[in-house]
Amino acid sequence: MIDQLWAGWRRSFIEDTDGGRNVQSCVLCALGADEGDETFVLHRGKHNYVVLNAFPYAPGHMMVVPYQHVGDVLDLEDEVYQETTDLLRISLRALRKAYDPEGFNVGANLGRAGGAAFDDHLHFHVVPRWLGDTNFMTAVASMRVLPESLSATHARLKGLFV
């Protein structure tokens, strides 16, 4: 069993509403509606935002998230999809500049069977990777060891999305 991290500050995302649109049921909608830096949003585009993953696999693990609440890439409006792919490329450039990784995992988990934790709100993961970056702590102790805090990662990457 993996240890749990209690993050009481996230409660505001669950209870928030935006302009009469209830965002209670979707944390990704709530993150898109929240304008504060405490959410670790790196960039807000017209149709998508880029945010650090709150439970990263590696430093710099980010997500490109459409504001459009759909669960399938085929349901995205064309202009939303175009900006999504543009932001994936911008995210890769930012991570290369900030971290110089040796590779990346990039993709989306579509549907519950595809491993999506939020299967009704599409999002794309961008994870920098290095040779030998496997960590025995996950297998042995059910925990991850990250060499950098989310706030330090945010500070390192935020300026690369201007």
Main sheet attributes: strand count, strand direction, barrel closure = 5 strands, antiparallel
User: Tell me, what is the CATH class?
Assistant: Alpha Beta
Q: Mean pLDDT score, rounded?
A: 83
Total number of domains: 1
Report strand %: 15-25%
Q: Point out poorly predicted stretches.
A: 16-23
Quaternary status of these chains?
single chain
Task: Using the CA coordinates, give the radius of gyration.
Answer: 16 Å
Q: Note the gap between the termini.
A: 40 Å
Order of helices and strands: HEEHEEEHEEHH
List the total number of helices: 5
> For the record, what is the CATH homologous superfamily label?
HIT-like
Give the overall form.
Answer: globular
CATH architecture: 2-Layer Sandwich
Give the total of beta strands.
7
In CATH terms, what is the fold-level topology?
A: HIT family, subunit A
Helix coverage percent of residues?
25-40%
Q: In which order are the strands of the major sheet placed? A: 3-4-5-7-6
Helix/strand structural class: alpha+beta
Question: How would you characterize this protein structure?
Answer:
The protein is built from 5 helices and 7 strands; from the N terminus they run αββαβββαββαα. It has one domain (37-161): HIT family, subunit A, CATH 3.30.428.10. It starts with 10 loop residues before the first helix and ends with a helix. The protein has helices spanning 11-15, 27-33, 78-99, 136-141, 150-158, and strands spanning 17-18, 21-22, 41-44, 48-52, 62-66, 103-107, 124-129. The radius of gyration is 16 Å and the shape is globular. A 5-stranded antiparallel β-sheet has the order 3-4-5-7-6. A two-stranded antiparallel sheet has the order 1-2. With 162 residues, it is an alpha+beta fold.
